Amino acid sequence: MISGETVNPLLDEVERRACRYFYDHSNPATGLVRDRARANGPEHRRVASIAATGFGLSALCIGDLRGYLPRGAAKGRVTRMLESLLRRVEHERGFFYHFLDMPSGARIWGSEASSIDTAWLLCGALHCRAHFDTPAIRQFSDDLMKRVEWRWMLNGGSTLSHGWMPETGFLPYRWDSYSELMAMYLLAIGSTESAIPASCWDNWARPLRSLERLTFIDADAPLFTHQYSHAWFDFRGRTDRYADYFENSRMATIAHRRTCLRLAGQYPCYGADLWGVTASDSANGYRTWISSGCPANGTLVPCAAAGSMPFAPAECAAVLGAMIRRFGPRVWGRYGFVDAFQPDANWFNPDVLGINLGISLLMIENARSAAVWEAVMSSPEAHRGIELAGFTVA
Predict the structure, then answer these.
(1) Domain that holds residue 326
(2) Suppose 341 and one of 7, 202, 304, 348 were both cysteines; which one would form an S-S bond, judging by CB atoms 3.0 to 4.6 Å apart?
(3) How many domains does the chain have?
(4) pLDDT tens for residues 146-155?
(5) Per-residue confidence at 295, pLDDT binned at 50, 70, 90?
(6) pLDDT tens digits for 223-255?
């Protein structure tokens, strides 16, 4: 147990099972983490995602910290993963492809060299460097950070491109409005080798939305846009000239919960302790449920609450407890909660998704101990990015 922490056996077990996913489903040769897997039973799909791999690096730190993994196992696994990412896995100017073949590290599905997904990988590497602090892990992490050509990803503009493809060049989309982008910009501004101008922090829009008697910066996007950057960067007590982003995400979470509760008459499964949707599987395929236009068709997504744990800890923990009490093994398996379920339609996803387990794991750990935040914020890159972007302590 972390000193001073309140014991919560359910949260501990959610974390333990999520760490098991990232240990079981990283390839021994490349270290790449499987994009998704069966909640129970054998798994043969070989598609990895670089974002899930970033979460996987942090998961190994948490597993080591908490004693979920055999002593020394996480450190050895991280060392091999970072070396492989540096020397074996396909990339373009330091940017990794969104989806990769697990055994070979080669690009698949015609996916893009992704700026945002590379950012999650780098956040995981920073976490490992701070947590393990061995010469090899420091060197591999440093080399991964220095290899990324952030200025190239500007593509002559003042905001970062979404990515690049060898067949067609840069994607036509830019990170020019509020979303999960904050950690990526702070890494790019704080880079030692290819920093973008600090003024880029001011170049993305921050549209305000009024919802459920609250006003906050928002996007027409799933709830995870208010979670991902907060998984690694600690915005508590810090403000720039525009906002207190931790408070902003707290308000977005509360507004999302209230929106779900208003739909309880339409979807009987929704209630004070059962709410939350974000990007996930559904009975009709993968969906990106919009957090403010909200809920869909009565689907529930456990990582909506689990990934918001620092913003509304009591309300979010109550959701996880209620899900287990009401649905038991239909939603709870080897790696924790299934990705999504729609109880009114008797649909329970047979899969778990790496990124959704990852955001649940990291945000629960931050709510319990702040360990991920403390590790990443100790890095020179994070400190430099925060300072150059104009943050001050409130």
Answers:
(1) 9-393
(2) 348
(3) 1
(4) 999 999 999 9
(5) low
(6) 999 999 999 999 999 999 999 999 999 999 999
Q: How far apart are CA 233 and CA 140, in angstroms?
A: 21
Cα dist from 321 to 252, 318, 328, whole Å: 22, 5, 10
How many Å apart are CA 100 and CA 120, to the nearest integer? Answer: 15
**65 in a domain, yes or no?**
yes
Q: Quote the CA–CA distance of 19 and 38 in Å, as a whole number.
A: 15
Distance between CA atoms of 217 and 291, rounded to whole angstroms? Answer: 12
Whether residue 65 contacts residue 366, with contact meaning beta carbons closer than 8 Å, is answered with no
Beta bridge partners, 223, equal none
Tell me 163's DSSP state. E
Listing DSSP states for 266-330 in one string gives TSTT-BTTB----EE--TTS-EE--TTT---SS-B-HHHHHTTTTTSHHHHHHHHHHHHHHHGGG
Segment 254-294, tens digit of pLDDT: 999 999 999 888 898 999 999 999 999 999 899 888 877 66
Closest by CA to 219, choosing from 105, 317, 228, is 228
Cβ atoms of residues 30 and 103 within 8 Å: yes
- Six token digits for residue 278: 């974000």
Flag whether 3 is in a domain.
Answer: no
pTM of the predicted model, to two decimals?
A: 0.97
1, HSE (Cβ side, Cα atoms, 13 Å): 8
The answer to whether position 2 is within a domain reads no
* Cα–Cα distance list, 343 to 1, 57, 118, 351 (Å): 35, 33, 35, 16
CA–CA distance from 331 to each of 19, 295, 337 (Å)?
18, 19, 5
Token pair, residue 48, equals 């990895």
CATH number at residue 371: 1.50.10.140
Phi, psi (degrees; rounded to nearest 5) at 163: 165, -170
Distance from C-alpha of 197 to C-alpha of 243, rounded to nearest angstrom = 20
Q: With H, G, I as helix, E, B as strand and everything else as coil, classify residue 192.
A: coil
CB 159 within 8 A of CB 176: yes
Q: How far apart are CA 299 and CA 295, in angstroms?
A: 8
Give me the chain's average pLDDT, please: 95
Burial class (CB in 10 A: 0-12, 13-18, 19+), 325: exposed
Residue carrying structure tokens 């922090």: 201
